[in-house]
C-alpha cells in the first residue's frame, strides 16, 4: 500500500491508502502496463494480467490499483473496508478529500511511479516502454494520465472513457427522471419503478425504428449505422412517428412488440437531446441515434437497457446501473460537498437521483470548499484540449468509444476530439486517434464487432515502438448466428448482412467504414474507411462546448 492512513475527515475514521499489485514475469521484455480501474474502484485486482488479458503472458510487467479505497474487508489488500450503507455505501470514501484525489488521479500516478521503481530494482533495468490501458473509469484514468502526467506513459489506450464523468452523471439523473414520468408504480424505496417503462420488446422496436431511418445511410443495410453523424433527429423523428402506437403504421398495441407509446417516443427524444437546466442550457451532451439501444439476448452487454432501465429483474426493485452504482456516485462523488445519503429508504440514493435539481444541484460538479478544495470536475475530468506536453514527449493516444453505450455519449467524445484537433493545429492524428464502434455496449458486448482489444494493443505498441500509426483496427464479431431476427420489425437485410462471426474495420475518426460493393459483408477486407464529409450544424454542432456550464441553448 501507498500512503496508508486513518482518515480524520471521515466520521467513521476508516483506513485509506492506495492498494496495488504488480505482476513481474520471469522473462521480461522491457514493457510495463498500468491497468485502469472501473466504476468507483475499491477492489484490487491481485493478479493483474493486463487490460487485454495477454500482457503478462507476453512478458510485460503489469500493475493495478484499487483507487485509494477498499469496499470489502475480504479484498486482496485485506482487513478493512471503506463502505458504510448508512452513509454513501460503496461511494462513502468520497467523504475524504484525499480519497477523492486518489480515486480521481493520484492512485494511477503513484502506483505507476512506484511500480517502475520496483521493476528497476527487481530486474536491474529500467522500463523501456510504459503503457496504460483501461475502459470506462479506466479509460478516464488513461486520458487523465495523458493530460496530468504526460511524462508517465509512452502509449495510452482509452476505451469508452468517462472523460467528463461528473457531467455524464447529470445525464444519468436526467434519464431516470424522464423515464420516471412513464412509471406506473413505485419500487421498495417509494421511487418510480423503471423496469416497466421500456420492456425489452419496446427497445427492440426502438432499434428497428432507428435502423429504418439511418441504416442505409452508409450504403449497406446490415443493422449497423456507420454514418452516425448523418443519423439526425430530422431523420429519426419521422421513423419514430411511424412506429408510434395508434397513429403510426406499425400497430396499436402498447408493449406488443410492434410499436412505442407516444410517451415513450417523447421520452426518447428528451433523453437523446441531453440534460438541460430550466433556461434550456446544455449541461452534458446530446447522443447519437444508434441501433444499440436494444441489446439482443444472444449478444449481451452493459448497454442502454442495463444502464437506464433494468439489469436483473427483481420485483419492486430498481436495478438499472444508473440507480445503483450511479445513484451512489451522484450525491457522494459528483457533489461538493458530498451529500451523505443512505443506500436505501425513502431518503436514500434513489430519492436523490429522482429529486436532483438541474438548476441548483448540477452546478455543484464545479463547486470547491475549504474542506474540499478540488471540485468533482477538478479531480475527475480529462477535458483538456492542449495536449502539447504529451505530444512533445512522443506520447501516442488511441481512444475507442461506442457510438452510444447508454452511459457515455459518443457525440461528446467526438466533439472533444474535434476541439482538441483544432487546439493542436489540426494535427491531432499525428499522436492521437479516435475509433468509434457502432452498436457496442459499454466496454464490449452488443450486436457489434466488439472484439478488438488485442489488435488495439498491437496498434499502440507498433505506433510507439515502430512509428507505425494505425489507419484502421480490425474488430471481430463472435456471434455464431445473427443477433437480429430475420424479419419481424426488422428489415430482412439486417440479419442477412450483419457481420456474424466476421470482421469489420474501425476507422480513424471522422472516417467511417463503407462497403466496397462486393464480397462478404462479414470480411473487413471488403470495407474501406471513407470520409463522410459531415459538416457543422445539425444535431452534432461542431461548436457546442459540452462544458457543463450551460451557454448552449437547444
Give the secondary structure arrangement, pairings included:
Elements: E1 2-6, E2 15-18, E3 20-23, E4 31-35, E5 61-65, H1 97-123, E6 129-135, H2 137-148, E7 155-159, H3 165-180, H4 200-214, H5 233-242, H6 262-273, H7 304-308, H8 325-332, H9 349-354, H10 376-380, H11 388-392, E8 396-402, H12 410-423, E9 432-437, H13 453-466, E10 472-476, H14 492-497, E11 503-507, E12 512-515, E13 527-530
Parallel strand pairs: 4-5, 4-6, 6-7, 7-8, 8-9
Antiparallel strand pairs: 1-2, 3-5, 10-11, 12-13
Helix pairs in contact: 1-2, 3-6, 3-8, 4-5
What do these coordinates show?
- It comes from Bradyrhizobium guangzhouense.
- Belongs to the tannase family.
- One of its GO terms (molecular function) is carboxylic ester hydrolase activity.
- There is one protein chain.
- The chain has 554 residues and is an alpha/beta fold.
- Helix content is 28%, strand content 12%.
- The chain has helices at residues 97-123, 137-148, 165-180, 200-214, 233-242, 262-273, 304-308, 325-332, 349-354, 376-380, 388-392, 410-423, 453-466, 492-497, and strands spanning 2-6, 15-18, 20-23, 31-35, 61-65, 129-135, 155-159, 396-402, 432-437, 472-476, 503-507, 512-515, 527-530.
- A seven-stranded mixed beta sheet has the order 3-5-4-6-7-8-9, sandwiched between helices.
- Strand 1 (2-6) and strand 2 form a beta hairpin.
- The relative contact order is 0.13.
- The mean pLDDT is 95.
Amino acid at each position: 500500500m501507498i500512503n496508508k492512513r486513518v482518515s480524520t475527515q471521515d466520521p467513521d475514521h476508516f483506513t485509506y491508502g492506495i492498494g496495488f499489485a504488480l505482476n513481474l514475469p520471469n522473462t521480461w521484455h522491457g514493457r510495463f502496463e498500468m491497468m485502469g480501474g472501473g466504476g468507483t474502484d475499491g477492489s484490487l485486482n491481485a493478479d493483474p494480467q493486463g487490460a487485454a488479458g495477454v500482457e503478462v503472458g507476453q512478458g510485460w510487467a503489469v500493475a493495478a490499483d484499487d483507487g485509494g479505497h477498499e469496499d470489502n474487508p475480504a479484498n486482496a489488500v485485506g482487513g478493512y473496508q471503506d463502505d458504510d450503507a448508512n452513509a454513501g455505501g460503496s461511494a462513502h470514501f468520497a467523504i475524504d478529500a484525499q480519497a477523492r484525489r486518489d480515486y480521481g488521479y493520484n492512485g494511477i500516478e503513484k502506483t505507476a511511479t512506484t511500480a517502475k521503481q520496483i521493476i528497476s530494482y527487481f530486474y536491474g533495468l529500467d522500463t523501456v516502454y510504459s503503457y496504460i490501458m483501461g475502459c470506462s473509469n479506466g479509460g478516464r484514468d488513461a486520458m487523465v494520465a495523458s493530460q496530468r502526467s504526460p511524462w508517465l506513459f509512452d502509449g495510452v489506450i482509452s476505451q469508452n472513457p468517462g472523460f467528463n464523468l461528473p457531467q455524464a452523471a447529470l445525464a444519468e439523473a436526467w434519464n431516470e427522471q424522464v423515464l420516471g414520468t412513464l412509471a406506473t408504480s413505485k419500487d421498495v424505496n417509494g421511487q418510480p419503478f423503471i423496469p416497466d417503462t421500456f420492456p425489452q420488446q419496446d427497445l427492440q422496436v426502438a432499434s428497428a425504428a432507428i435502423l429504418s431511418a439511418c441504416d442505409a445511410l452508409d450504403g449497406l443495410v446490415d443493422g449497423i449505422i456507420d454514418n452516425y453523424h448523418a443519423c439526425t433527429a430530422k431523420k429519426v423523428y419521422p421513423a419514430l412517428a411511424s412506429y408510434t402506437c395508434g397513429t403510426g403504421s406499425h400497430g396499436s398495441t402498447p408493449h406488443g412488440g410492434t410499436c412505442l407509446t407516444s410517451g415513450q417516443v417523447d421520452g426518447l427524444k428528451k433523453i437523446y437531446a441531453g440534460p438541460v437546466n430550466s433556461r434550456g442550457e446544455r449541461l452534458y451532451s446530446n447522443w447519437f441515434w444508434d441501433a444499440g439501444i436494444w441489446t439482443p439476448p444472444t449478444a449481451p452487454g452493459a448497454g442502454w437497457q442495463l444502464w437506464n432501465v433494468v439489469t436483473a429483474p427483481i420485483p419492486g426493485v430498481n436495478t438499472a446501473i444508473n440507480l445503483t452504482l450511479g445513484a451512489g456516485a451522484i450525491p457522494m462523488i459528483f457533489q461538493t460537498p458530498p451529500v451523505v445519503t443512505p443506500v436505501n429508504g425513502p431518503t436514500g440514493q434513489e430519492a436523490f437521483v429522482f429529486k436532483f435539481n438541474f438548476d441548483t444541484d448540477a452546478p455543484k460538479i464545479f463547486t470547491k470548499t475549504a474542506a474540499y478544495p478540488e471540485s468533482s470536475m477538478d479531480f475527475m475530468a480529462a477535458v483538456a484540449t492542449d495536449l502539447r506536453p504529451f505530444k512533445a514527449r512522443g506520447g501516442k493516444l488511441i481512444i475507442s468509444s461506442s457510438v452510444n453505450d447508454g452511459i457515455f455519449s459518443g457525440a461528446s467524445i467526438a466533439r472533444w476530439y474535434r476541439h482538441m484537433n483544432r487546439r493542436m493545429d489540426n494535427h491531432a492524428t499525428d499522436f492521437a486517434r479516435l475509433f468509434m464502434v457502432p452498436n457496442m455496449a459499454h466496454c464490449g458486448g452488443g450486436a457489434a464487432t466488439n472484439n478488438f482489444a488485442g489488435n488495439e494493443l498491437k496498434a499502440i505498441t507498433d505506433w510507439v515502438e515502430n512509428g507505425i500509426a494505425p489507419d484502421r483496427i480490425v474488430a471481430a464479431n463472435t456471434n455464431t448466428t445473427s443477433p437480429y431476427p430475420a424479419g419481424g420489425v426488422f428489415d430482412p437485410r439486417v440479419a442477412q448482412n450483419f457481420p456474424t462471426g466476421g470482421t469489420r474495420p474501425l476507422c480513424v475518426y471522422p472516417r467511417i467504414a463503407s462497403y466496397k460493393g462486393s464480397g462478404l459483408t462479414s470480411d473487413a477486407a471488403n470495407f474501406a474507411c471513407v470520409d463522410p464529409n459531415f459538416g457543422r450544424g445539425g444535431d452534432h454542432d461542431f461548436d457546442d462546448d459540452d462544458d457543463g456550464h450551460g451557454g448552449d441553448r437547444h
